[in-house]
Amino acid sequence: MNEPTYRIASIPGDGIGVEVLPQGEIVLRAAAERYGFTLRFDRFEFASCDYYLAHGRMLPEDWKEQIGAHDALFFGAVGWPQTVPDHVSLWGSLVQFRREFDQYVSLRPVKLMPGVDAPLKTARDIDFVIVRENTEGEYSQVGGRMFSGTEREIVTQETVMTRVGVDRILRYAFELATRRGTPHVTSATKSNGISITMPYWDERAAAMAAEHPDVAFDKFHIDNLAAQFVLRPDHFDVVVASNLFGDILSDLGPALSGTIGIAPSANINPERRFPSLFEPVHGSAPDIAGKGIANPVGQIWAASMLLDHLGERDAAAAVLRAVEEVLADPAVRTPDLGGTATTETCGRAIADAVR
Ligand code: GGG
């Protein structure tokens, strides 16, 4: 029987994205060799600030044709505020991918890995998933600016929630909690202060909870939820949140479990009408870019999520096991985890562990 072949669009982007993405590719190749499938990588230089400086836009006109037929998108990081404002680079690239490919689920696991020191003593048993709504909410283009540069300046931006958008992310969270076998969903809200959209979110969450009586359900205002993450992170299983709240929580969660450098993210179109995108949670980190010391684990863990999405479950599990094994060894830790290893040393060690 022929080996399955998957086409992967590799998009390094900016800053440390360029350094960590190749380590993810090396590990993916090692997994493909060991588990008997073929990966064909096509590299794209767009969705980077260098591309913007050369072309005046983050993506070419035909970007959907160029990458839309791939089985998955493997992304590094975007942003180089020294040359391109962050809102231009983010909206011109990642936000376009998420919306046009209807990747409405952003899945961000948070787990305390063996051997990784958590900064707080409350962080004993962290293993939860943040399910972030990824296509609407606070990330909207509804709004505007009037009377720019004058005393009368007015700036607005509306949150957009649709019934379809809210229900589908909540349903995904409840179904994921059921699959994880520890069924508990926590919803992030702020309905005391944001008095129209957030009560609507709460209303839909309560309706979804009523449809899933076997799943324990609670909700917290986002300010209290942030505090609860710090005080008792072991309380959480699946945390569902709007676009902005989910983005904030998914930096806080990994920070509690050691470093944002190890955190992965999957931007999923569950219906598989479009390719899904896998990336580290971290951004381009200009402060350490070019030094060869970025932690590649977030990218490599994202590679494991990519394999899982392709249905290569054994390979996905092997990559995650290799990550755990290597993180437990202080000799191959990068500086964010207190070690002295380079990006390449750490990546190579994980690829070797997969083989
Ligand atoms: N690899 C993730 C990345 O490049 N993130 C840049 C960023 O600013 N992201 C904000 C967001 O995900 O909404």
From TrEMBL:
Keyword field: Manganese, Metal-binding, NAD, Oxidoreductase
Similarity comment: family membership: Belongs to the isocitrate and isopropylmalate dehydrogenases family.
Catalysed reactions listed for this entry: (R)-malate + NAD(+) = pyruvate + CO2 + NADH
Record flagged with keyword NAD: yes
Domain of life of the organism encoding this protein: Bacteria
Coiled coil residues, start to end: none
Organism field: Saccharopolyspora rosea
E.C. no: 1.1.1.83
Top EC category: oxidoreductase
Cofactor or coenzyme needed: Mn(2+); Mg(2+)
All residue ranges annotated as the Isopropylmalate dehydrogenase-like domain in the record: 7-350
Record InterPro entries: ICDH/IPMDH, IsoCit/isopropylmalate_DH_CS, IsoPropMal-DH-like_dom, TTC_DH
Keyword Metal-binding: yes
SUPFAM superfamilies the record matches: Isocitrate/Isopropylmalate dehydrogenase-like (SSF53659)
Upper classification of the organism: Bacteria, Bacillati, Actinomycetota, Actinomycetes, Pseudonocardiales
Protein name: D-malate dehydrogenase (decarboxylating)
GO molecular function ontology, one term from the record: tartrate dehydrogenase activity
SMART domains on file: Iso_dh (SM01329)
